[in-house]
Each structure stands twice: as C-alpha cells, then as structure tokens.
Write a structure and sequence with these properties.
Layout (H helix, E strand, L loop, with lengths): L2 E7 L8 E7 L8 H14 L22 E2 L2 E2 L21 E5 L8 E3 L2 E2 L2 H10 L20 H11 L6 H5 L6 H12 L8 H14 L10 H5 L7 H16 L1
Parallel strand pairs: 1-5
Antiparallel strand pairs: 1-2, 3-4, 3-5, 6-7
Helix pairs in contact: 2-5, 2-6, 3-5, 5-6, 5-8, 6-8
Bound molecules: iron/sulfur cluster (SF4) and FE2/S2 (inorganic) cluster.
Length: 248
C-alpha cells in the first residue's frame, strides 16, 4: 500500500504544533500500525530529518503506552485493540490517515504524538492499592471465599491498562471510566474493603485536581476502550463515592 500520513508535529510542550504530510510506500497489510510508523521513521532518519516521537513499549496490548488518535478515533478504526495491535489491513491503498496525540489538558503533549499521562499515576497513588500485613500473620488469599461472579467482575475491571483512550475520546476529557475500573477492581473483593471509603474519596478528589472533566453518560469511552471496560464501573464508583460520603 502507498499511503499519505497527516501527522501532528510539536517540538515540545511549549511550542505550537501543526499537521505535516508524509508519504509512505510499500506498506504490507500484515504490518502493525506501529511497524508502519517505524518505516516512516527510518525513512525520516535516512533523509536526515527528525523522527516522529511516539510512545510504545510492549507492542502487544498490555502496557497502554501507544496512545494515538487515528482518523478521529482513539487507537484507530478497529474495536477492542490498542494502536500496537491495529493492523494495516484496516486501511486501503491510497488512503490518507490522520494521526494525532491524545488531546486533553490533563495529558499535555511532550513531543509530537507522545503525551504526559502521569496524571493517571497520581490518581493510582491516591488510592489504587491495598495495604497488606506482612508481619507473618497474613491470611492466605486463597482461604478467603469470593464468589465467582465477584472475582470475574473484579478481574474484568483490572484489565484496564491505563492507556487513556477513554479520556481522549470523551468530549469532557473525563477519566471516570479509568477511575471507575481502578475503584471497582478492589471494591468487589474483600481485600479492598478496609480502605474502600478513603480510596474512592481520594482517587476522585485527585481526578478532579488533575483537571479531568465530568461524565455526562455519552458512552464513547466504553466503545473506544481497547479492553472493553464497561460503564457499569462508573456507576459502581458513583455508588462507592456516595456510600463513603454518607459514612463521613
Ligand atoms: S478504561 Fe479502557 S480506555 Fe480507559 S484507560 Fe482503561 S483500558 Fe484505557
Ligand atoms: S505498546 Fe503496549 S499496549 Fe501498545
């Protein structure tokens, strides 16, 4: 395939960015989207030009680093995949593909397509953990009965990879799908009960501090989420929050 790429270039967080056109040729439909970007970068380097900065690590849908907004959709036109799992067979010879970074004030652009998602780390630090007594009297987790339904729902919530596609997709730049998943993965398990009230209050308050918007139930986040995190997690977080506030 021969393609035209319209890519957001921005020198650093302070500079003004702009879309620049590039051509790539002989792209195989079996390549992943990031492999296609590698081809372009090799071309740029051999021409003595600055390669395009983009985040990636695992390239297998696990780390959540590959944040690209492709043709107006977070992680591109396929469903249930991250950008690194998106294949070029989703495009046609002669296509023009627009590639932008996540756009949200809480995710400032570092360079080109790389954004700073440390706001998510700070939300996690505010409450996304459990305290475990490691003095030698710790109860074996396998000896605590947990229903299959609760274990499965908690596991589904825990599959959130913190990629930020939900924020990039939401017209309000809301992080509630991410925070809902992180609250739910503990709220559903006995091990998460001790700090449950503090967790939800602290994580929601950090989310607000970081400048993410509110949820208006549009549902775009659930559709674009590569891990299929359900809106039910937002409802659960709201219930947990209300419960914690009533308790005081
Ligand atoms: S909820 Fe989905 S879209 Fe949002 S950070 Fe988690 S995996 Fe990514
Ligand atoms: S590079 Fe790790 S999820 Fe895409």
């Amino acid at each position: 395939m021969n393609l035209t790429l319209k890519i957001w270039r921005q020198k650093d967080s302070k500079s003004k960015g702009q879309m620049i056109d590039y051509k790539v040729t002989q792209i195989s439909e079996h390549m992943s989207f990031l492999e296609m970007m590698d081809v372009l970068n090799e071309q740029l380097i051999s021409n003595g030009e600055e390669p395009i900065a983009f985040d990636h690590d695992c390239r297998e849908g696990i780390c959540g680093m590959c944040s690209m907004y492709i043709n107006g959709e977070a992680h591109g036109p396929d469903r249930g995949v991250t950008t690194c799992q998106l294949h070029m067979r989703m495009f046609k010879d002669g296509d023009t593909i627009t590639i932008e970074p996540w756009r949200a004030s809480a995710f400032p652009v570092i360079k080109d397509l790389a954004v700073d998602r440390s706001a998510f780390d700070r939300i996690q630090h505010a409450g996304g953990y459990i305290s475990v007594n490691t003095s030698g009297n710790t109860q074996d987790a396998n000896s605590i009965p947990i229903s299959k339904e609760a274990a499965d729902t908690a596991m589904d919530a825990a599959t959130c990879i913190g990629c930020g596609a939900c924020v990039a997709t939401c017209k309000n730049s809301s992080a509630m799908l991410f925070v809902g998943a992180k609250v739910s993965q503990y709220a559903l398990l006995p091990q998460g009960q001790v700090e449950a009230a503090d967790r939800v209050k602290n994580m929601v308050s950090q989310m607000d501090l970081e400048g993410f918007g509110n949820c208006t139930n549009t549902g775009a986040c659930e559709i674009e989420c590569p891990k299929g995190i359900s809106l039910e997690n937002i409802a659960r977080m709201n219930r947990e929050f209300l419960k914690a506030k009533i308790k005081g």
